[in-house]
Amino acid sequence: MDAPLPPEQRRRGRRLAIGSHLAGMIFWTANTSHLPTLALVHLGATETVIGLQGGLLPAFQLLQLPTLRAVALASKRAILVCGQLLALTGALPLVFFGQLVAAGPEAAIALAFASFVVATAGLQISNTVWFALLNAYMEPDRVGRFFGAIRTGWHLTLILFFAGSQLWLDRNPGSFGPLFALAWILGLLRILIVSRMPERSEQSAARPRVRDGLARLQSDPLLRRYLIGVSSAGAVRYTMTPFVIVMLQRVLGFTSAQIMVTTVAVFAGGLISLYLWGRVVDRVGPYPVFRATAIGSGLLNASLIFIGDAGSAALAFATTYFFLRSVLAAGHGLADTQVLFALTPKDAPSRTLVTTQVSVAFLSSLAPVLVGLVLDALLSRATDALPVYQGLFVICGMAQALSFLPLRAFKSGLPRSPIAT
């Protein structure tokens, strides 16, 4: 492995990482989050299909396990660029969304879902090496502040993108093609930026072995507690996001343009809070943040039972929910990253980072798929769909509020960064 990067290259890497995310996260989000859900609802997809799409992002982190073996043979930049190219290829049919609609409902749903599958797979392959690249740029006492800064930047660009999307859909209902096209161009721009990023090579004669990373998960009690706590929170988050949107559109009758306001609220919450959360996490440590954000998010999830009609007050309530949930998720995410970096060996980070993140994502991905199947079964027999969704929100609220309990292992502070094993 190469020697640690000199300070100037670390600073350059941090600047390029921030610039990369300003463009790349629009492409990422447009193909994995709220916009796909709205597009599938517009096409008439079932709750099961929507649940499957909601679980694609965490489920496809499994692709990072075989990709991890390539770290010993290829540069991280090359792996990142190849994954991004696959994602761009998969997302290209979405640029022609109008033609998909003309193909008929069944064909359109199948083609759109296939595009999301390939795009998400490429993004997750690319993302295998992202944290390992960033790990080489870190100053140990400023992890929270760096991630607060990088995430603040792309939250601002996402606000601009989705605010523009709301205006576009308000004037052109169902016209998703131009939005996917703009995201596709920005995804291409990201390749030009990341190809210049410096890296600390992990190429060697011995490939990183997945079983070594999994063995560390089994042997390290702190990693196991981290895995359980973060997976629980992630499972609730991946479940709530698509099905709150489905409830707002199918049950209450809000339009895609109206619901896009809630998407803007998500990124506004992150924008105003990430920098402050970064300083808080660096100052007080992760556990107080885990506890406060879990309980607060649980109460927010349960509060959705008070939405009962499609009036302006309901839309304002939903927008406030997404805004406040985003504020709390921003803090939880920074505490999560701080713990993960503290538990990661500095001279061989990929093995621990990838196997841990994949395990978290796989466990989280099961929830939205299972919930989609259950909702389809319950809704087929229900005369009123709203109580079904309200029951889901209460259950998710309780699960979220309790998710910090395994993370009490970090109550006394962060462990020292382990040596490579």
Keywords:
421 residues; mainly alpha; 17 helices; 0% strand
Most strands sheet: none
The overall pLDDT average reads: 86
User: Low-confidence segments, ≥5 residues, pLDDT <50?
Assistant: 417-421
Per DSSP E runs of 2 or more residues, the count of β-strands stands at 0
The percent range for helix content is over 70%
| Order of secondary-structure elements | HHHHHHHHHHHHHHHHH
Give the C-alpha Rg.
21 Å
Shape: globular
Strand content is: under 5%
By oligomeric state, this entry counts as: single chain
Tally the helices. Answer: 17
- How far apart are the termini? 14 Å
Helix-and-strand structural type = mainly alpha
Structural summary, described in words:
The longest helix has 31 residues, at 221-251. Helix 3 packs parallel to helix 7 (105-127). The protein is globular. It has 421 residues and is mainly α. Mean pLDDT is 86; it is low at 417-421. It contains 17 helices and no strands.
Quick structural gist:
The protein is mostly helical. 75% of the residues lie in helices and 0% in strands.
Secondary structure layout plus pairing:
Layout: H1 7-30, H2 34-43, H3 47-59, H4 64-68, H5 76-91, H6 97-102, H7 105-127, H8 130-135, H9 143-171, H10 177-194, H11 210-219, H12 221-251, H13 256-284, H14 286-303, H15 312-342, H16 349-379, H17 386-402
